[in-house]
Amino acid sequence: MVSAARGERSPMVSASRTLRILPMGERALLAEVAGLADVLALHAALSASASPGIVDLVPAARTVLVTFDPARTSAAAVRDVIERAWSQATDAAAPPSPADPITLDIAYDGPDLAEVAEMLGLGPGELAERHERAPWTVAFTGFAPGFGYLTSPAWTFDVPRLHVPRTRVPAGAVGIAGAFSGAYPRETPGGWRLIGTTTAALFDPAAARPALLRPGDRVRFRSIGRPSARATPTASVVPARTAGEAESPAIRVVEPGLLATVQDLGRPGHASIGVARSGALDRESLRIANRLVGNAEGRAGIEVALGGFRAVAARDLWIAVSGGSGPLTIDGRPVGTHVARPWPARSELRIGWLEHGARAYLAVRGGIVADEVLGSRSTDTLAGLGPGPLRAGGSLPVGRAPRDPVPPLDIAPWGAPPDHLELELAPGPRADWFEPSALRALFESVWTVSRDADRVGARLDGPELVRAVPGELPSEGMVPGALQVPPGGRPTVLLADGPVTGGYPVIAVVTDASLDALGQARPGTRIRFRHARSHA
Length: 536
Description:
Blueprint: E1 20-23, E2 28-32, H1 36-49, E3 54-59, E4 63-68, H2 75-88, E5 102-107, H3 113-119, H4 124-133, E6 136-142, E7 144-151, E8 166-169, E9 173-177, E10 180-183, E11 188-190, E12 193-198, E13 218-223, E14 249-255, E15 259-263, H5 283-292, E16 301-305, E17 309-313, E18 317-325, E19 328-330, E20 333-334, E21 341-343, E22 348-351, E23 356-364, E24 395-397, E25 420-427, H6 436-444, E26 447-453, E27 457-461, E28 476-477, E29 482-484, E30 492-494, E31 501-502, E32 506-510, H7 512-518, E33 526-531
Parallel strand pairs: 5-13, 25-33
Antiparallel strand pairs: 1-2, 2-4, 3-4, 5-12, 6-7, 6-13, 8-11, 9-10, 9-12, 14-17, 14-24, 15-16, 16-23, 17-22, 18-21, 18-23, 19-20, 19-22, 25-32, 26-27, 26-33, 27-30, 28-31, 29-30, 29-32
């Protein structure tokens, strides 16, 4: 359905002053208001509050997600912060924005321009002119780092997405969907109708302000006719090294297996600009491996999915492997996991196919050295941030070894990851969108991890979770562990590389303490859920 109702209420106008505060697991609250005007006002008030313990704020179509650190504050305290901010926010409150709008040069040359114009009963030139004249505001970000959802009171159209999304939308493409406009910061799949091209650098993780567009910013488009012949700027990463780190290659990858990536403990606190936490899926296993070789717990290591990894040391190294269990050899000789041991120069380390668990973690004394992006060396497989997945023939530097000797501990207490998991669930914000039978099925059924499982999320096979509320949910902030339920009724658990916003209702959230165990769940692993103790 396409509408061009010029007299209808703009999405920027709030219909009423209402606030609902909903749980999003045990580390976030979702503040729901009437519309975008209230979202922008509440987000501005929360941003100005600078409350200790609040990690991130993620505005969306009708909500603001507030994530917090339970070690520094509590859900009750954060609820009070939200309510105080709401009492100070008004419909007239303007969020902070630059004195002048951010100007995006655009060539109206998109492949869907003529078709969309015909849908709306306009000529292509008139559609381009109306898009250029509209005063736009960044309502929220998401989908990809630096992707801003732009809205305008002068843009009264509702344009449907493509029935079949494109598998490739080029960086710099400007599109429209629903009541929004936006520009793609990087090449990605997408279903928006493309009407133009911009050469603006929308996301640069090495810049002091990585995302050009942030919630509340004002934006104007300026037509430049034909696009420039130069390539559209993409996210350029300037190497960020810790002082004194080695630069010469220390490890040569012979075979990465199914997927091997560099991971540390992630980059929390950037969801507001569309950047996921990322980092090791089993953080505790990475911490253990680092402790065994004397590293700080957060040093970068190698996460090996399901095994099949082979590499040769270019110099003498110390290593430890933890997490999933399977055959581990150095130059063909079996060695044990969860033990710090030498890896002699020119010898080959092999992590065979895992027999239990989904991911093994290789820590090297001194840590893997890779470019830092927003304070982390982690590979984000969805957003394309950080070093790329390891490839055969590639090399990795290792940092300078700590001054302290390798710890004398001979073996760390460990057990092979189980094939049957019992995970805790905390309440989700949209449990009331489901029939009571769905909640019973969630906790009474045995679920199986399907083959559709990766660092972004894990789809579960089991009974259908029946919806009580039909229709679509406007996009809202997401967290790792969120159980999104698409129309088919089978939930998907979002993991560390998952999107920071989503449009499927979240029935519950896996607790942070259970996420490491879920990171070891391989296809076929059976799962039962139970209520989190603090919410039982």
